User: Fold DUF1330 domain-containing protein from Cafeteria roenbergensis.
Amino acid sequence: MAGAAAHVKYTVTAKLAAEHEAGYVAWLKDGHVQAIVDEGGACVARVEQCGCSEEGVACVKSVYVFPSRDAFSAYETGLAPKLREDGIRRYGPSSERPVAFSREVVDVEASAVGEEAAKEGAYTGKA
Assistant:
């Protein structure tokens, strides 16, 4: 790679029974996602409901943008283990609401936001 990435995008994809989707999204919105911003160093966090890819299976993505690889690494070794433990307790394979999780980490080399979105406080992508 020629230089350090501008940002790091971390995505957690959850596949779960559609009947449990609303509760899972409520849990994310009731503090989990905000904690990653407030305590974990992410500069942006959002929850995306992707709909059902298979009948009865919902897909929810939690997307986080960190200002640098170092900030993401600090999250991974600091807050992440505690949050993952809580998630596994609530939604792990032996819970009443099992979720299949996958994770993706990508370097963001550039991004742009339209003028109207910037006025509304959207993430500008500037380091």
In short: The domain at 7-110 is CATH 3.30.70.100 (Alpha-Beta Plaits).
